[in-house]
Amino acid sequence: xxxxxxxxxxxxxxxxxxxxxxxxxxxxxxxxxxxxxxxxxxxxxxxxxxxxxxxxxxxxxxxxxxxxxxxxxxxxxxxxxxxxxxxxxxxxxxxxxxxxxxxxxxxxxxxxxxxxxxxxxxxxxxxxxxxxxxxxxxxxxxxxxxxxxxxxxxxxxxxxxxxxxxxxxxxxxxxxxxxxxxxxxxxxxxxxxxxxxxxxxxxxxxxxxxxxxxxxxxxxxxxxxxxxxxxxxxxxxxxxxxxxxxxxxxxxxxxxxxxxxxxxxxxxxxxxxxxxxxxxxxxxxxxxxxxxxxxxxxxxxxxxxxxxxxxxxxxxxxxxxxxxxxxxxxxxxxxxxxxxxxxxxxxxxxxxxxxxxxxxxxxxxxxxxxxxxxxxxxxxxxxxxxxxxxxxxxxxxxxxxxxxxxxxxxxxxxxxxxxxxxxxxxxxxxxxxxxxxxxxxxxxxxxxxxxxxxxxxxxxxxxxxxxxxxxxxxxxxxxxxxxxxxxxxxxxxxxxxxxxxxxxxxxxxxxxxxxxxxxxxxxxxxxxxxxxxxxxxxxxxxxxxxxxxxxxxxxxxxxxxxxxxxxxxxxxxxxxxxxxxxxxxxxxxxxxxxxxxxxxxxxxxxxxxxxxxxxxxxxxxxxxxxxxxxxxxxxxx
Length: 637
Prior knowledge:
With about 625 residues, the chain is an alpha+beta fold.
C-alpha cells in the first residue's frame, strides 16, 4: 500500500537526485570551477563599476544601449533618444530585450554589468565543458586560460556590448560542433544571430568547415546558404528599415575604400597590391599576434576551424579605425569561442600523454599574454586612472541619482551613461542639424546638467565653464541641484526661498531679491528660508537678482560681503556681475541678471550674528554707488 502512495512521487525523487548529483559534481568535485568563475565574475564586475563610477564608460554606446533596454520597460522596442530611433538601426540585436527584467530588480544602469559578467562567465564555462569532455586533465587550465586571457579582459572592459549576448550561444554552438550534434549547433547559432548580424558570417563559414572537414554536404551547404542569406537580409534590408538609412550604416568603417559596396569592391579589384598592404600591415599582424600568444598558438593545431574567423578578421583589417584593425576593444569577442574550440579540436590528434605539457604551455602562454597585454590590474595595458574614483566623480554620481525619470534633459556628454533612466535625454554637445554646438539647443532645453570642471566633445573646459557662467547668469534657469561645480538646471524662473531686497544702487541698478543656499554635509547646496541661520565654517551660495534701470549703467563691480554687526569686514567676493559674463556697461534697459557668488562663514563666529551686505562701485574710479540696501541679518549656529 505504501508503495502505491510513493509511486507517483518517484519521478520527482529521481529529478531531485539528478539535481543533487549535478550539484555535487559542480560544487564539490569541481570546486575550482566555482572558485575561478566567482573570482572572474567579481573582479570584472568590480572593474566595470569602478570604470563607470570614474566616468570612463564609453559615452555614446553605453548610454544608447542602456537607454534602449530601459525603453523596453516603457513599451518601446530598444528605442533611444540618442539619436531618436531604435538601436536596431545600427546592428541587429533584438536579444538585448532579455536584459530589461534585470532593471526591475535593480533599477540602475549598472545592473547591465551583471548581465555582461553573466554572459562572459557562462561562455567560459561552456567552453570548459567542451574541453572537459575531451581532456578532463586539461580542462581546469583551459578555463583558467579563458579567465586570464587579455583579449577577454579587453572586450569585457570595453563596456556593455551587443555581441556579449551572443557569446554563450556561440559557445553552445561550438559544443554542438565538438559533439557532432547538428541540432545543438544550429540552435546555438540561431540564438547568437539575435545578438549581431555578423554572426551570420560565422554560420556561413562553419558550413564550409563542415563540407571540407567532415564531408557533411547537407548541413554544410544549408548553413552556408543560410548564413549568407541572413547576412544580406539583415544588413541590407532589416537594419536600414529600422534606421531609415539607404545603406548598411556600418559602411562608414570602410569609407576610405568607397561610399558603397560597388566602390569598395572596385577599389579591391583595381588596387589589389595596395589592398593587401592595407590589410596585412604591422597593426594587423600585431593584432593577430596579440590574440594568438595567450592561446599558446594552440588553435593553429586545428587550422581549418581557426580559419572560420578569417572573413571576420579581414573585415576588421579593412576598417579605417585602429580598434578593429588591431582587434582591440570588443572586436575580437566573437572570435573567442571559435579559437578556444579550435584548441580542443586540435589536441584531439595528440596523445593523452601530452596533456601535462599542453596544460603547462597554455598556462605559461596566458600568463605571458596577461603580463604584456591585459587591461586588468598588473597587466601591461592596465591604467590605474581608468578605475580611480575621486571626490568629483562621487559628486557626479550623486547628482545623477537625483535627476528624475520623467523629464526632458540636455546633458553634459560625459554624464549621459549615468542618466540613461531619463526618458528624453540628449547629448549636450553632440552634433545638431550639422552644427557641433548650438546656443539655441541650450535655450530650448527644459533641463540641463553640466559640469564646469570637465571638458567635453567639441568644447574645452574653458568654453564649458563659460556656458555654466551664462546659465548661472540667467534668472530663468532655476538651480535645482549643485554639487562640486556640477549643476542641474530647470528652465523656469527661480522660485527658491528669498529675501526681497527692493533696493536701488546709483539709480541705475535695482536689486530685486537675494537667495541664500548653504553647502550641506552631503556636498549639495541647500536653499535656506529667511530669516537665515547658517553654520560656522559653512560655504554660502549668494544669488543677487539684478535689473537695469537705465539704458547706460556704466562699468560696475558688485561686492557681496559678510560683516560683523560692528561693521568689521569678515569676507567678501567682488566681481563683474555673473563672474564677468554680464558687464554692466553692456546692460540694456530692464535687463535681468542673476549674480552668483560664494562666501565662507568664518569658523570662529559660532553663536554670533553677521550681516550680509551688498555694495556696488565703479570698476575704474572705485566710487561706491549710493544705495538704500540695509543688509540681511544672519544668525551663526
